[in-house]
Design a protein that fits this description.
With 174 residues, this protein is mainly α. Helices cover 52% and strands 11% of the residues. It has a two-stranded antiparallel sheet with strand order 1-2. A hairpin with a 4-residue loop joins strand 1 and strand 2. Helix 3 crosses helix 4, helix 6 crosses helix 8 and helix 7 crosses helix 8. The radius of gyration is 27 Å and the shape is elongated.
């Protein structure tokens, strides 16, 4: 067998010796700049892979597909609040909530604001439902005494020449 098949069986064949492929614009997996940007988007509570892909391209000129972003976020352990809440130990979650409650002695912050503060300070995202339940468990009087309504003053266009009528409305917030 001195034909062409004998020559190819002794040497390994590399179809792409230069390493160039159709993904020339894609950053390597170990690119620290992309990693930092993904952590930044996580801290800013941007979880949608489609939106992240668009932001990377618009703000930084980095072209990454949605599936590549999902793979990289998974490899970095960056998850949205539901997965994080399920995976974290109960003591860690409770401590995060208690730390933020103690920073608010007037007890005016609700679950949504506590959630945002935890995310801003630590980069960890917990569900609002968990935070609400934990707030009620740890400080039921403080949670009940919170004023959960926002007072807005609306001005009507009715005037008697000297005064304008103001109407106070109450709109609930959660």
């Amino acid at each position: 067998m001195s034909g062409p098949s004998a020559a190819t069986s002794t040497k390994p064949h590399n179809r792409n010796p230069t390493g160039r492929n159709q993904y020339k614009d894609c950053r390597p997996k170990d690119d620290n700049h992309v990693t930092e940007l993904l952590y930044d988007y996580q801290r800013r509570e941007i979880f949608d892979k489609k939106k992240i892909s668009q932001l990377l391209y618009d703000e930084h000129g980095i072209k990454l597909s949605e599936s590549s972003i999902a793979r990289r976020r998974r490899a970095l352990g960056l998850y949205a609040s539901g997965v994080t809440t399920r995976q974290l130990p109960e003591t860690v979650k409770r401590q995060l909530v208690l730390t933020q409650i103690l920073k608010d002695p007037e007890k005016k912050l609700g679950p949504r604001m506590i959630k945002q503060l935890i995310a801003r300070d630590t980069g960890i995202h917990l569900t609002r439902d968990y935070i609400r339940a934990e707030m009620m468990r740890q400080d039921p009087e403080g949670f009940a005494s919170r004023d959960t309504s926002v007072k807005k003053t609306h001005t009507l266009g009715i005037s008697d020449g000297e005064s304008i009528i103001h109407i106070m409305t109450m709109s609930p917030t959660c």
